[in-house]
Automatic annotation (TrEMBL):
This is Multiple antibiotic resistance protein marR. Keywords: DNA-binding, Transcription, Transcription regulation. The keyword Protein biosynthesis does not apply. GO terms for biological process: response to stress. It holds the Pfam family MarR. It comes from Corynebacterium halotolerans YIM 70093 = DSM 44683. PROSITE patterns: HTH_MARR_1, HTH_MARR_2. Residues 6-141 form the HTH marR-type domain. One of its GO terms (molecular function) is DNA-binding transcription factor activity. Gene3D superfamilies: Winged helix-like DNA-binding domain superfamily/Winged helix DNA-binding domain (1.10.10.10). It comes from the Bacteria.
Length: 153
């Protein structure tokens, strides 16, 4: 058996991923946090207080975009700016307790939306998706780590 080419796999699944992404976020738009805002909050929860430049780099966005998103989150009291202890001139952004609870609430809400989509599959398909979940998570972790490490080199 020959190893499948990544380009062939991508060509087969890209249209479906796009369709699922759009449908998922149409449903999830009912939440009061956008996908990028949720991603920033999740990153702050995982990595702790971070400089705006670090958040922009890790999110793959420009500094003004990151600054604007963080300003919106700060207005809602989901994040706050704190002095950088290692460089008193610098500022870091940290998650507030309200930010943590909103992150958890919206995460649970979006997990339910995705579970509803997955629940439409039959038993055999559910088993196959369950097996693929680990691969999908590994791909997301690897891609994110590769993106971050290439920016710091």
């Amino acid at each position: 058996m020959t190893t499948p080419r990544p380009e062939d796999i991508a060509a087969r699944i890209r249209p479906a991923l796009t369709k699922l992404y759009v449908m998922y976020f149409r449903i999830a738009e009912q939440s009061d946090l956008t996908g990028p805002q949720l991603s920033i909050l999740s990153r702050l929860k995982e990595r702790g207080p971070s400089r705006i430049s670090q958040i922009a780099r890790e999110e793959g966005i420009r500094m003004p975009t990151a600054s604007n998103a963080l300003h919106q989150l700060e207005q809602r009291e989901l994040v706050e700016r704190i002095r950088d202890e290692s460089d008193r001139r610098g500022v870091r952004v940290t998650l507030t307790p309200l930010g943590e609870s909103e992150l958890q609430r919206v995460g649970e809400e979006r997990t339910k939306y995705l579970a509803d989509m997955i629940a439409t599959l039959d038993e055999e398909q559910l088993s196959r998706v369950d097996e693929l979940a680990g691969v999908i998570n590994e791909l997301a972790d690897k891609y994110g780590a590769d993106l971050i490490s290439s920016d710091t080199e």
